Amino acid sequence: MSNSSFKIKIITPAKRFEREIKYIRLKDTTGFFGIMKGHINFLTALEPSLGYYTDINGREVFLAVDGGILNIRDGVITLTSREVFESDNAEKLGEIIDNTILKRDESEMAFLKMLEGIEKSFIEKTMEFIRESR
Q1: Full-model pTM
Q2: Structural contact between residues 53 and 24, judged by C-beta atoms closer than 8 angstroms
């Protein structure tokens, strides 16, 4: 770790990873903010947004964050979110987001159809029970 870098831990339900960075810019309910090494302890709710960080080689990496919580404790940042996407190419990041959202939408639609079937079955069995008890 260099004198100007610090660690960020990124945690989602699907993965957990760490990066060594020099700067990060994200968005919370008050707007965009930046963090460098030495930032005071801090806790905030993140908005779904695009941001970026600068890695230890000076390269900018774009982030798409699906909301979440950012915590800075003793110089270490922990970012927890439903999903976090990263790429050093903004166009590629857009493709990753589009593909993931499409898969998520398809999965959610399948789940809703299944739930609809369960509800229908429950209503039918309830009506049958009521009819039989009369």
Answers
A1: 0.70
A2: yes
